[in-house]
Design goal:
CATH superfamily of the largest domain: P-loop containing nucleotide triphosphate hydrolases
Shape: globular
Oligomer: single chain
Radius of gyration: 26 Å
Distance between the termini: 54 Å
CATH class of the largest domain: Alpha Beta
Number of strands: 18
Number of domains: 3
CATH topology of the largest domain: Rossmann fold
Length: about 550
Amino acid sequence: MLSVSNLSVQFGKRILFDEVNVAFTQGNCYGIIGANGAGKSTFLRIISGQIDPTSGHVHLEPGKRMSILEQDHNAYDESTVLETVVMGNKPLFKIKKEIDALYADYSDENADRIGELQVEFEEMNGWNADSDAAALLSNLGITESLHYTAMGDVDSKLKVRVLLAQALFGNPDVLIMDEPTNDLDYETISWLEHFLGDYENTVIVVSHDRHFLDSVCTHIGDIDFSKINLFSGNYTFWYESSQLAARQRAQQNKKAEDKAKELQEFIMRFSANVAKSKQATSRKKMLSKLKIEDIKPSSRRYPAIIFDREREAGDQILNVSGLSATSEDGDLLFQNVDINLAKGDKVAIISKDSRASTAFYEIVNGNRKADKGDFQWGITTSQSYLPADNARFFNQNSNLVDWLRQWAKTEEEREEVYIRGFLGKMLFSGEEALKQCTVLSGGEKVRCMLSRMMMLRANVLMLDEPTNHLDLESITAFNNSLKNFKGTVLFTTHDHEFAQTVADRVIELTPKGNIDRYLTFDEYMSEKTIKELRKKMYAVSV
């Protein structure tokens, strides 16, 4: 359906892609992965026709329609929400606008043209366009009262959902999505996962959300060594198979038949756990044909994130009593919050309003005053905090070695060799450790903050959206480190896999108090009694 032939992209002396040949077929969902800067978004822009390659070409089967998830959230501010969605089918919308223009200046001369257009419009199911668009919006949580509101007057987080509806509208033959889960809540992401799981056309997606990639992908397109290699299976299968390939490559003395047996057992395990029934049969067939030479070890580098504790905390960790907070606009974020943390708890702090969880962290870290209530940390606790907005940590003009030295406690820790050790674990080696902190990317800043947290050796970690800006390699290493950490963790994240595999307790902050359960994240979100309770806790009082 969509193919790329002899594609090369070069910026100056840097070769991003070199003679790439790849084909995307109907009924499959392809997750495009690669290290930061590998060219994931550039590749999507090339196949969608937004930029031209240095050489080679992209071919879309004649008569097929491509749709792209729009990244410019302000591009349609003058249009209504409903109209913006219908714009997702450009040929249909063009005909609709021409019909409207001809009717506005109606004459006998253009009557025949109107008739021709209306026949074409009907063949494209145009008369149901508005109702189909409205249904999509409703599924994405956009109420009917907003359908005729100008996009410029819509909340930024709701705009993302409208643009998602636009991309999905009209059942495009090829759907291209760059980070579709950004700024979406769990319920909307879950809806999108189920929608794409049943989608019968071609999907090409870039995402850092591992749960999303595992839920929707039939193939992984790995950008490595300036090539794109397609692998059957989802992200976890690609990750574990690349790790298996690396281990087997290191086992020079292991017999070929032993390696083949290990691979077969590995494939059987994954074949038995295919998530989507629609994909199960075809994916099992693809996996059964794999040979060890078909999977290759990745060139990716994973940071070494290791959280040690200077001391073990006692039984008293944190007691919160009657805590309440409002936003700068006067919105009630949460009230009457009562929490008693136990040693070793790993708690997902969630809320339908992201400002609530951020306000909570800022209060218990002493950066903000609560409207009401108080909190008390145990005397044996030491805290380390990764805020969602870390800009205030990087406003001085110093290199990374001097930047990290600020949190050294002893003369030994002030030594450059000692500090470079922490930076090296986060992939700042050699000259990279002397970069100025004012020129760092978002992902580099988070990795610096993690170096700082590791150096502090606290027994309580607090993390507000810690995976923002990180690549898949850093997220995976971070996730594993928290699973192994022996201390207490409070965290807020939109990364489903992160929440499910780290948290053993969920605390939800609402305008009517807090919900507190010792459950995994998936158990919490699926429990019927909790669903009913959540509705009541967020219901607006009349």
